Amino acid sequence: MTDRLNGPERIEYRLVMIEANSMRILAAASAAGRSLPRESIPAHMRVAGALNEAMEQRYGVCTLQLAILPGAEEPSSCAVHQIIGFQKAILGSLSFVALDEIASSELTEAERSLVLRIMKGETNELGRFARLGWIDELIAKTCMHRGRSSMPVICQLNQGIDFCLLNLKEADGRNLWFKAVGKTNTREYALTQELMRRFPEHLPKLLAWIPEWNGWIADGVAGAPLNHSSDKAAWEQALAALAFMQRNSIGNTPCLYRAGAQEWTCARLRSLSKPFFEEAERAMRAQISTKAKPIDCKDLRRLQASIEAALISISHSGIPETLVHGDIGHGNIVNSPDGPVFLDWAETYIGPPFLSSEHLLADLERFQPELACERSYLRRCYARHWRDYTSPASLAEVTACAPAVAAFSYALIVWEAHVRRPDPTCVWPLLRSLLRRTQRELESTSEVAA
């Protein structure tokens, strides 16, 4: 399924683009008959967003992904899209044909059957969004089109079985987001409900819940991602808002657990330390790259002892374990005019609060390197929000060891997510990198505490 001409990092898709009213498909003439358009995209990109954008640029067709057909043994996968509009008249060699006019070489019998069932709305196994017309139901739920002469501009970023993420934008500038989650991530629905209820000032404004879709519609957040900002005060404000939510969640952890928050407490991190470091030894021995020296067994054992001691120190400090945003970087904080707004709570944990602050400071170092010199200042600003729970000496100790513990916890969470997969060794390069980061942070704890 990789595109050999463009390198192993691209995937080719055959595109079935359906016009809902006529039930006809865009295709090109070829020697074998009518053929499907093809598009290859980088393997790391979100498929729906990348293919929608490619079809708009290449053919002027606005589309909505309905499904990626399963079980393809062909050189390419098959993506089924609904046509929802035209930006330009540049179809070129494409024209509308019936499904049975598509050359037999373009679709397997199973794929052709699935496309027909998608047209009829009979593909429950591909999820609630693998059917024509569901987007009209969503627009009706938002009431966006009521009394208006034009439909909203729809930009779909991601799609999967029972999962969808898209933006709807009106001509007058009104901007909404729709998100629905599938079976593997239903916890995000319940967690978002709970956190929007408790912290409306720091989450997007809710417009509607759609429980039958495990989805919700929220107002777009005005502003830019925090990681685009070089303003130290904006980062300090985000850390203060984070601490506010964490402090106000201390008595609410049972409710968060019931909603689906995952446990990454000091006790759980320590319980997984031994098997993790055993695999870390294997990962270091398997290293081929010479860019960085592997950590030897003796140093790994010292690193394990130091991390376990740090976890004991944090757990004995008196600072409660509470709400942790497990994906706090990557643009998931918007610096809005009304203050920081936190997005995407799929990875919500209960654990040491400093895990979130340190992951956010790592994001600052990555995206705003000119502010890296302010990390110690921002770390102390965040730590001050926890003065009521511990002694000054203990707070200084926790603040000093938090960067190393955060790096270790990230490595352990990644490892735990992959350990039962067919090839758990695929994450070894990342684990080696994170353990080197953990080692460096431990070595610099005297600078952090200064």
Provide a brief overview of the structure.
The protein is of the alpha+beta class and 450 residues long. It has helices at residues 47-59, 109-120, 134-142, 187-198, 232-247, 253-259, 266-285, 297-315, 354-367, 375-383, 392-418, 428-443, 445-449, and strands at 10-19, 24-30, 33-35, 38-42, 61-68, 77-86, 94-97, 153-160, 163-169, 175-180, 206-210, 215-219, 224-225, 262-263, 322-325, 333-336, 339-342, 348-351.
Description:
There is one protein chain. With 450 residues, the protein is of the alpha+beta class. The chain has 13 helices and 18 strands. The longest helix has 27 residues, at 392-418. The termini are far apart.
Structural class by secondary-structure content: alpha+beta
Shape descriptor = globular
Query: How large is the count of helical segments?
Result: 13
Our Rg estimate from Cα atoms comes to 25 Å
The beta-strand count equals 18
**Range of helix content:** 25-40%
Which SSEs are present, and which pair or pack?
Blueprint: E1 10-19, E2 24-30, E3 33-35, E4 38-42, H1 47-59, E5 61-68, E6 77-86, E7 94-97, H2 109-120, H3 134-142, E8 153-160, E9 163-169, E10 175-180, H4 187-198, E11 206-210, E12 215-219, E13 224-225, H5 232-247, H6 253-259, E14 262-263, H7 266-285, H8 297-315, E15 322-325, E16 333-336, E17 339-342, E18 348-351, H9 354-367, H10 375-383, H11 392-418, H12 428-443, H13 445-449
Helix pairs in contact: 5-9, 7-8, 7-11, 8-11, 9-10, 9-11, 11-12
